[in-house]
């Protein structure tokens, strides 16, 4: 639609009591292209015609009004019509006879009445069409400007609302309405300032829901959100109104208590724990019992807290201790403890382990396993060490536990298996009969990542699978028994063998082991270390050896450190022995594959259990 058609699409209201003038005006406007004409001869007809336009009066493009309308005040009617529905300045044209004298006073009144202009009754269409088109065009432009102004006002209002909402969300949790971490840190800044300058005590509680994951995973995230809202409400109603409560994690709340002593803080924490422990979350026919582990960090002048992160870290460590000690309890941060030291070890060693994996800073060492009857070196146990900063080889005791906690143990398993097979493949032909055992972590057989590596390395290196025996601990075998048993069977199908390490540590697991597919049972070193002087160990070890043989498996005794122990083991019928008496772990294999068991020195050895684990 072009601009002329847009103008001609507007309604025109003609108010004319004279039928002749009315007919003439209709003809002239029709000839000018205006089709939407509304005609009225008196004031009552006017209001009948404009009643349907209530709420959409902007569709009325203009008004032609006879100045001498009988029975009404034309100027007052003019003011009324041009301001319908609060819209200003609907164009209005007064029509007057040629002999009508239009003075300045009347012009002023017309202006006050929002009339566009005063003209004489036209004789031709071209005398009125441009005037009407101009008036309507000005109205359309004015309406467009007003519409844009209203739109701009609306956008500004929405923007102010959005800014206010964003400002609120900067310091608050949207789900629960509690403060978030940012808001808590500001409150902690102020509390630390009061503590350091005015000696005001306080405490920070770290409240971690124990069973939230159960609800969230089983019932879904919506149910989890409902639980968090109910917990937030419960904490609000339980604590003093002066307590500053924040949600800083998925299921983690922190509470800042002001002007409270250490004992008062512990009492508040215990009261909150009991309240949460008694709370039942009901969802349909299901009811979930909730509990929380709460860590308490005291804010006191002697603690010398300078930053919010310090207090938050202490509360978090105390909460971590509460969880490791069984959950659903309150723990006070009292300095370094075993759990915190473990975390520090993780932070210190994790990057070192990653760097060692990246730069091949691990080393393999080998300890001989000797036939107890003839002294022949049956095979070597392959152990792993890490190269220290001074070039020394460090015990796995310092990095294996960290690797297990940090999810790096799988990478070490793969490194050891891959490099051990490469080492075997590189041995000279004169040593092609030497066999090796390789220790695997408790996690190695829980996934499918290890089997393809073993298979690929054996195929590419041409190493006979019969030269490889993999060792797993008895505890690892019993845990997730079926999955471990299936994986052991698949690896044995390649031609490899298996040994069960730490045999006897889990004595109640014998029922599992009668059908477990391993070739060797390695007696746990705790029974061997004092064998020569402990009669109870002697009875147990002899029983383990007999059980091994009855199950069709060979028995290996480790940590053999003196000839008395060796003689007892030979008497009990053990198949293989291993320990410092026979050879320490070394990066090189023994030159002689036979050890004279009769000529061994009886010099006592210092047993470092972890070095051979």
Commentary on this structure:
45% of the residues lie in helices and 19% in strands. Helix 4 (74-81) links the parallel strand 3 and strand 4 (92-96). The strands form 4 sheets. The protein has an 8-stranded mixed β-barrel, surrounded by 4 helices. It has 613 residues and is of the alpha/beta class. The chain folds into 3 domains: 3-148, Rossmann fold (3-Layer(aba) Sandwich); 181-335, Alpha-Beta Plaits (2-Layer Sandwich); 346-612, TIM Barrel, CATH 3.20.20. It is built from 20 helices and 21 strands. The longest helix has 47 residues, at 125-171. The two termini are 89 Å apart.
Share of β-strand residues: 15-25%
Widest sheet: strand order? 13-14-16-17-18-19-20-21
Unreliable parts: 603-613
User: What coarse outline follows from CA principal-axis ratios?
Assistant: elongated
User: Regarding CATH, which class of the largest domain?
Assistant: Alpha Beta
CA distance, first residue to last residue: 89 Å
Count of all domains: 3
What structural class do helix, strand and pairing data support?
alpha/beta
Q: Which terms would index this structure?
A:
613 residues, alpha/beta, Rossmann fold, Alpha-Beta Plaits, TIM Barrel, 3 domains, 8-stranded mixed beta barrel, 5-stranded parallel beta sheet, 21 strands, 45% helix
Q: What can be said about this structure in brief?
A:
With 613 residues, the chain is α/β, with parallel strands linked by helices.
List the helices and strands and how they pair.
Blueprint: H1 3-8, E1 11-15, H2 19-31, E2 37-40, H3 43-50, E3 60-66, H4 74-81, E4 92-96, H5 104-112, E5 117-120, H6 125-171, H7 181-198, E6 202-209, H8 212-219, H9 221-238, E7 244-247, E8 252-258, H10 262-277, E9 280-283, E10 286-289, E11 292-299, H11 308-324, E12 330-332, H12 338-359, E13 362-371, E14 377-387, E15 393-394, H13 400-405, H14 409-426, E16 435-439, H15 450-461, E17 468-473, H16 474-478, H17 481-492, E18 497-503, H18 510-513, E19 520-523, H19 535-550, E20 554-557, H20 563-572, E21 576-577
Parallel strand pairs: 1-2, 1-3, 3-4, 4-5, 11-12, 14-16, 16-17, 17-18, 18-19, 19-20, 20-21
Antiparallel strand pairs: 6-8, 6-11, 7-8, 9-10, 13-14, 13-21, 14-15
Helix pairs in contact: 2-6, 8-9, 9-10, 14-15
């Amino acid at each position: 639609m072009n601009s002329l058609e847009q103008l001609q699409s507007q309604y025109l209201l003609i108010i004319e009591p004279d039928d002749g003038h009315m007919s003439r005006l209709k003809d002239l406007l029709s000839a000018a292209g205006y089709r939407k004409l509304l005609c009225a001869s008196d004031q009552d007809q006017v209001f009948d015609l404009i009643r349907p336009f209530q709420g959409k009066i902007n569709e009325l493009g203009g008004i032609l009004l006879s100045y001498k309308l009988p029975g009404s005040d034309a100027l007052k009617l003019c003011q009324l019509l041009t301001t319908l529905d609060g819209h200003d300045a609907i164009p209005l044209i007064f029509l007057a006879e040629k002999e009508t004298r239009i003075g300045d006073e009347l012009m002023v009144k017309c202006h006050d009445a929002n009339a566009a202009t005063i003209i004489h009754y036209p004789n031709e269409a071209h005398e009125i069409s441009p005037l009407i088109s101009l008036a309507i065009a000005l109205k359309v432009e004015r309406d467009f400007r007003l519409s844009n102004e209203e739109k701009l006002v609306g956008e500004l209002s929405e923007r102010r609302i959005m800014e206010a909402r964003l400002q609120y969300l900067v310091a608050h949790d949207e789900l629960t309405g509690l403060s978030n971490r940012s808001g808590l840190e500001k409150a902690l800044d102020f509390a630390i300032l009061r503590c350091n300058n005015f000696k005001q005590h306080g405490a920070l509680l770290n409240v971690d829901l124990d069973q939230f994951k159960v609800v969230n995973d089983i019932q879904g995230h919506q149910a989890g959100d409902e639980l968090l809202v109910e917990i937030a409400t419960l904490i609000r109603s339980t604590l003093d109104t002066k307590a500053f409560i924040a949600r800083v994690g998925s299921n983690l709340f922190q509470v800042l208590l002001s002007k409270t002593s250490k004992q008062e803080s512990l009492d508040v924490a215990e009261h909150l724990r009991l309240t949460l422990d008694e709370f039942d979350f009901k969802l349909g026919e299901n009811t979930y019992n909730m509990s929380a582990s709460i860590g308490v960090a005291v804010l006191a002048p002697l603690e010398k807290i300078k930053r919010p992160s310090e207090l938050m870290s202490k509360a978090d460590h105390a909460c971590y201790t509460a969880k490791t000690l069984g959950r659903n309890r309150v723990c006070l941060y009292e300095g370094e403890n075993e759990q915190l030291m473990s975390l520090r070890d993780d932070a210190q060693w994790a990057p070192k382990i990653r760097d060692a994996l990246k730069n091949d800073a691990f080393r393999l060492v080998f300890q001989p396993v000797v036939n107890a009857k003839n002294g022949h070196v049956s095979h070597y146990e392959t152990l792993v060490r890490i190269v220290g900063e001074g070039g020394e080889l460090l015990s796995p005791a310092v990095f294996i536990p960290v690797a297990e906690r940090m999810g790096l143990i799988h990478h070490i398993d793969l490194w050891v298996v891959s490099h051990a097979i490469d080492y075997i493949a590189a041995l000279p032909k004169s040593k092609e009969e030497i066999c090796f055992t390789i220790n695997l972590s408790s996690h190695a057989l829980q996934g499918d990542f290890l089997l393809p590596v073993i298979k690929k390395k054996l195929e590419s290196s041409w190493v006979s699978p019969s030269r490889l025996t993999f060792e797993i601990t008895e505890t690892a075998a019993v845990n997730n028994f079926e999955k471990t048993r299936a994986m052991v069977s698949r690896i044995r199908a390649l031609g490899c063998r298996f040994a069960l390490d730490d045999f006897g540590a889990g004595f109640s697991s014998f029922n599992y082991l009668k059908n477990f597919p391993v070739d060797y049972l390695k007696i746990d070193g705790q029974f061997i270390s004092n064998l020569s002087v402990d009669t109870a160990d002697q009875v147990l070890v002899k029983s383990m050896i007999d059980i091994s043989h009855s199950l069709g498996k060979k028995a290996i005794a480790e940590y053999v450190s003196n000839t008395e122990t060796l003689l007892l083991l030979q008497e009990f019928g053990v198949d293989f022995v291993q320990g410092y008496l026979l050879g320490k772990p070394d990066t090189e294999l023994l030159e002689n594959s036979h050890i004279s068991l009769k000529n061994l020195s009886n010099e006592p050895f210092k047993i470092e259990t972890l070095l051979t684990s």
